[in-house]
Amino acid sequence: MPHIGIIGAGAWGTALAAHAARIGHRVHLVARDRRLAAEISRSRENPRYLPGIRLPEGIAASNEPSALRAVELLLLAVPTQALRSVVAALPAPTPPLLLCCKGLELGTGFRPSEVVRALRPSTEVGVLSGPSFATEVARGLPTAVSVAFSDLSRAQAVASLLAGPTFRPYPTDDLLGVELGGAMKNVVAIAAGIVMGKGLGENARAAVITRGLAELARLAEALGARRTTLMGLSGLGDLVLTATSLTSRNTSLGYALGQGGSPRDLLSAGRALAEGAFTAEAACTLAARLGLELPITDAVRRVIAGTSSIDAAIEALLARPLPEQE
Q: Angle, to 10 degrees, between the axis of helix 295-305 and the axis of helix 202-223?
């Protein structure tokens, strides 16, 4: 049985562990919290992040990264803003990494794979992304995702390793497109949630999602991604899922903002992390370097930063000059 390691015992890491064990892999799940790891081992459940979902046998949980030395593939299901510190602490030699986080790093604007390459340039790195709520994966409901490596044959091998009756990974070598789709859809989801929270209607939400996809494509293509990737699972597919459901942390954040919530309170420690709040700032910095306009992303950035009210941001978006063509 292949031996797979997963760092991050939140909802997503635990769901991936459940899936991998269900299809017959040995899984070592590393949690930051020793007590949570002990509880997962004792009760076969993650009561903090996936309560009520029984985890299959085959998952060994601990908070000891040293146990990952013998794994054939290591999945990192940690927040993008924590990725640098996690990678820096990995034991050497580092096994191939599959990044299961979405976003851009604050300060550098790096995609997750770029963070890894800056620290471990010789490590093989890929990304798993796509429309996938953790609870549904943990329950074994049908899910399709993208698995991206720069080497297509490696993407195909990892996709085959993770494929199961209800989990269908599609391999691709467009690592850039998959990462940017996963990062930017969270920003658009916050905007869609704001529309929902303000009660602006379904027309407005559809417009925000569509124009947000155009922004995503503009940024990604400027960096060299393929448009077909952006129209696939890790672009349009993930955007549709995330921006139309309050199950999404990012849409829920936007909804709470639209209802009058304070950005500072909603992003305080102890609340569910919405990666789009960080990605908006990083994406605007990246777009400025490229000379691109991302009006919806910039509006989200200003609302999150508290430099614009939602009403002022909406007014500014609606006052933009009409383009000559869509």
A: 110
Q: What residue ranges of the chain are covered by domains with CATH 1.10.1040.10? A: 182-318
What CATH number does the domain located at 182-318 have? 1.10.1040.10
Closest to 175 in 3D by CA, of 146, 198, 138, 143: 146
Does domain 3-173 fall under CATH 2.60.40.10? My reply is: no
Reported as a single tens digit per residue, the pLDDT across 164-218 is: 999 999 999 999 999 999 999 999 999 999 999 999 999 999 999 999 999 999 9
The residue type of 197 is G
Give catalytic residue positions: 185
Which residue, 87, 75, 82, is CA-closest to 129?
A: 75
Kindly compute the dihedral angle of the four CA atoms of residues 8, 9, 13, 16, in this order, to the nearest 10 degrees: 140
DSSP, res 118: H
Q: For the chain, where do the domains classified as CATH 3.40.50.720 start and end?
A: 3-173
Q: How far apart are CA 108 and CA 297, in angstroms?
A: 17
- Bridge partners (DSSP) listed for residue 6: 29, 75
CB 259 within 8 A of CB 197: yes
Burial class (CB in 10 A: 0-12, 13-18, 19+), 23: middle
